[in-house]
Amino acid sequence: MSLTDMEKAVEGIAGLRGVFITLMPDCLLFDSWTREDRWHAEDVASYFGDLVRANREGLKAIEAWAADMQVTIESADSLVVLREMEGGLVASMVFERSVPMGMVRLSVKRLLGRLAVSLPAIELEDRPRGERLLDYLERYAPDPHAVRMRVALQTGIPLGELEHPENLSGGQLDEIEESVKFILGLDTLAY
Amino acid sequence: MMVETDSAADLCDAVVGGRDSPAIAGALRREHACRHGLLWRSDVAEPAVVVALQGLLGERCRRVGPAGLGVELFETAEGHGIVLVPRTGRLQLRIVGTTAREDREPVARALHRWLFGLVGVGVDTADAAADGGAR
Amino acid sequence: MHKRNGTPSVAYDNDLAFLGDAPVLYHCHHFNLFLDQSVDDALGPKVGPALRFAAAREASYQLLASLVRAADAVTPAERVALAEHVFASMGHGRLRIDAPQGVGKAVGEHLHYGQAWFEKYGATVRRRSPADAFAAGFAAAAVDLAYDLPPLSSAATEERCVAMRAPRCEFTIRRGEPEEARPRVDRAAVAATSADGWIPAGLHEDAIASIAATLRAFLAGVESDDSGLIRAFGVYVTMHLAGYYNRITYDTITRVQATAPKMTEVLEMLFRESGHVCVFNTFGGILMSPEWEGAVGTLTGDPAEIVAGGVAIARALGFGRWRIREHVPGERLVIDAPATYESPYYGIRHGEAVRPTCYFLQGAALAIMQLAERVRWSERPALTQAFYNELFRGGLPWRVEQTRCRVRGDDRCAVVVTRS
Q: Given a cut of 60, is residue C2 above it in pLDDT?
């Protein structure tokens, strides 16, 4: 069952292919509506959440960040608008590419207004660092099926302990973070 | 554009409709490959076209692989592979692996047009584009 | 016997393949990259590549020495040219070696590991270290042989790599201390270890033998292209050295057992996983190929068809005379072999084992069962990474146990797949 009245929120929005609400900072799917059966809403919500976070950090780095920032992506088939909302949420709205930009802006405004009314208040709860680290890795690792085994081998932390990341010690988490950086080829992680 | 051998005239004929097109070639669809965009599939429904393709490919391309095993393997001058299963009409185009990623689809489409140009069969490009496999 | 381009043909004993004296087999880049990655995960970013280099140099030296003898290549130029040609004809790309008296460089174009890594992972992951330890080892071995240097003494370092977004791969080659020779695992030694390995015919034997011979006929006609890459059944494959795979596998296991014994099981799981990766991509690719459709038939999706097909593919690729001992669709699969490409090496180099050691056979058998039972072949599925994850990620409905192993003194290697 939808947490939000999404059907009502998207009513009459022309050319809309999907809406994904991502709960930050963990990039978890909060709610979604989509016309496309083959899309995996959890994945889409996670990737767009990461994108918004990276965008925020990038803008902060050039001292250009503002709370009402909006990301627009134009792809061959779609026009995607990402927008931070109140309460640690991000809305990702996917339109057909043929919808004129002016119409998209108007629809985004209308949609955000409806969503703001219908979204419940959320109490943010920080998930354990270990969970966030491993979720982040599994989202981006090239071989997600094997990635926990890889971390176990690299760190020497038994698989059984990795199954319960909330119980890992600070030292173990530091080792896992190094492992994640190595696997993804990154100097720093934003998870 | 990689298919530019002595077959350019045929290619041109096929594209501009310089000859009759008695049948429509099967749409070109990308097949999953270990490297993106290197394998393309088309199915030939008309047995007569399959026979004609076999003959013409034997003349225009290098035959590779063993004979008499129910599948015919050819290689173009540019090194692209063309595999034909006469029994089922399945046709597979194997684009050379070093072809730049963005060029693979155009090369495959040109090769497809050239092939069916050889036998005077029109290629329904609209159908091919709508197929979705190429995206 | 030689192919048209002058490369010696592969010979088979008991469906194990040999090029010159060296045991060889065909594997695709999915397997190659995964195995290398597992070694580096276990040993770290310095020791892992060092082991892979040493294994490549050793196995390549054995291969090249036998081919140099057979070709009567005498001068350094002849030997270097032969090595470069063999490297390309095995599908590893183009390597140009210029290291007189063991000092100089090599340049690689389209190298299998680097290029394949970049194609597969480059868009999502940044690689921090070079990928072509195999090419480095091969170049070092070629230089040792070309200039009659002490065997296994030259060193090679990959300075630039396409996997790290360089335009081509570049290696420096220098003189080094020779590595101590280990017992040879050549054709004669493999035959000796397998001599008493007769086992009775299995299920569908005639069909399997016939399909394997047909597939091998296609493989025999495969030649490398101008880039030094080979494609068979639409899949890019390498003819690779079993000595390389086996040394990196068993040396890694040995080191992990010594330094972090609790991690041995995880490492074994990853080695089995490499079998899944291979079967899904290579076996699956062959089953879906037009060659299969034309020469064997259109897939119906009958589990028996896929199991028999998988075993035939294994034989054709040089993995050994796998046989189906039992198959109850949906329930149980037993595959055995008088020898695998893994068991002779282990026996010769490591002696008797306490635990079964045919990790690839274990993983491959489980994956064959999974492909037979969970894939709707008649619907022509795309064998994508997403589909792989769907099939192999998380709890598999099967478990595999190796019940017999030559290196434990059994008469064969056998694996049993049952419901988990």
A: no
Domain that holds residue A45: 6-118
Domain count, chain A: 2
Choose one of A118, A148, A169: the last residue of a domain. A118
The pLDDT value recorded for residue C161 is 98
Number of structural domains chain B divides into: 1
The CA distance from C77 to the nearest CA of chain A, in Å, is 40
Q: What is the pLDDT of residue A2?
A: 56
Note the CATH architecture for domain C11-174.
Answer: 2-Layer Sandwich (3.30)
Same fold, C11-174 and C197-233+262-419: yes
- Cβ contacts of A159 on chain C, cutoff 8 Å: 266
Please give the Cα distance from A22 to C370 (Å, whole number): 35
Residue from the list B33, B85, B91 with its beta carbon closest to the beta carbon of C234: B33
Task: Give the one of C221, C225, C383 whose C-beta lies nearest to B66's C-beta.
Answer: C221
The whole-angstrom distance between A65's CA and the closest CA on chain C is: 26
* Listed range (A40-54, C127-141, C174-188, C368-382) with the worst mean pLDDT: A40-54
pLDDT at residue C93 tops 90: yes
CA dihedral C178, C183, C188, C190 (to 10 degrees): -120
Partner-chain contact C294 B69, CB within 8 Å = yes
pLDDT of residue A1: 41
Look up the CATH architecture of domain C197-233+262-419: 2-Layer Sandwich (3.30)
Tell whether B23 is within 8 A of chain C (Cβ).
no
Cis, peptide link before residue A25, omega less than 30° from 0: yes
Q: What share of chain A is helix, strand, coil (3-state, %, to 5)?
A: 45, 20, 35
Does the pLDDT at position C331 exceed 90? yes
CA of C67 vs chain A CAs: smallest distance (Å): 38
Smallest CA-to-CA distance from B75 within C115, C221, C6 is with C221
Residues A28 and A96 in one domain: yes
Q: What is the dihedral of CA C323, C329, C333, C337, to 10 degrees?
A: 0
- Of B110-124, C116-130, C351-365, least confident by mean pLDDT is B110-124
Which CATH number covers residue A90? Answer: 3.30.450.30
pLDDT the model gives residue B19:
36
Contact A153 C37 (CB under 8 A): no
Boundary (domain end) residue, out of A96, A118, A140: A118
Chains within contact range of chain C (3+ C-beta pairs < 8 Å): A, B
Q: Could you read off the pLDDT of C373-403 as tens digits, one per residue?
A: 999 999 999 999 889 988 998 788 999 999 9
Show the tokens assigned to C73.
């290549």
Among A42, A47, A140, A149, most C C-beta atoms within 10 A, so best to mutate, is A149
Low-confidence stretches of chain B (pLDDT beneath 50): 1-23, 126-135
Q: How far apart are CA A85 and CA B46, in angstroms?
A: 58
Q: How many CB pairs under 8 A join A and C?
A: 55
pLDDT at A67: 65
Other C-beta atoms closer than 10 Å to the C-beta of C120 total 21
How would residue C419 be classed by pLDDT, with cut points 50, 70 and 90? very high
User: What residues of chain A score a pLDDT lower than 70?
Assistant: 1-4, 67, 121-125
Residues A88, A60 share a domain: yes
Other C-beta atoms lying within 10 Å of the C-beta of residue A79? 20
Domain that holds residue B49: 8-131
Q: Where are the domains of chain C?
A: 11-174, 197-233+262-419
Q: Are residues A136 and A76 in the same domain?
A: no
Question: Is C215's pLDDT higher than 90?
Answer: yes
Taking each helix axis as running N to C, give the angle between helix C187-194 and helix C343-350, from 0 to 180 degrees, rounded to the nearest 10: 100
